[in-house]
Amino acid sequence: MVNCIGCGVELNDSNWYRSRKIKNERNCIFCHDIKRLRRKVREKAFAPHLLARFLNRKTKAPYDRVQEGYVYIISNPAYVGWYKIGMAVDAEDRVMAYQTSTPLRDFKLEYKRYFNDRRSAERLCHLLIELESRGRHGEWFKIGLKRAKDIIECVSDDSFAQNTDKEQYVQQTFNF
Fold it and tell me: Cα(153)–Cα(17) distance, rounded to whole angstroms?
């Protein structure tokens, strides 16, 4: 049994680079990548894919494990009548991330609602809002703000189901 000298995890074929195994360097893939990244940052010569791999391991995996969070509505005065319906662990933080894409910093969090399962809630909200919207582009819907809020309000945590017939599911679950 061989353990990583960085984090102590037991090394095996799935978490130990083959080339490192041959050289008997006892670092798991994660610790080896961190070591490489630190060296590259000191030299100011890191490759974007190396940084992305490091950040992906550090932030994306724990984030994906979080089920609870918010379904939110974001607006921008540049897109009158269009609202983005999305999900996030932290809705305010998500709006701040959008602000970096516009010099006017004019994205506005119009509404947010907490759910125990944000992914399923967002999926169901998209399904319901799409039925009443006058247009859709990805997560952006052409719908009234009040109507979008009302639809999100009528979704409950225990109403999630996998059904391929959208209209039948909506009619069975909700009374509009």
Answer: 49
As beta bridge partners, residue 112 has 72
Torsion from C-alpha of 15, 33, 54, 3, nearest 10 degrees: 40
Locate the DSSP E strands across the chain.
Answer: 69-75, 82-88, 108-115, 136-137, 140-142
Same domain assignment for residues 50 and 92: no
pLDDT tens for 117-172 read 888 899 999 999 999 999 999 999 999 999 999 999 998 876 655 544 555 655 66
pTM over 0.70: no
Q: Which amino acid is at 137?
A: H
Domain that holds residue 107: 69-173
Q: Give residue for tokens 């999900």.
A: 87
Please enumerate in sequence order all residues whose Cβ is within 8 A of that of 61, keeping only pairs 6 or more positions apart, or say none: none
Determine, yes or no, domain membership for 4.
Answer: no
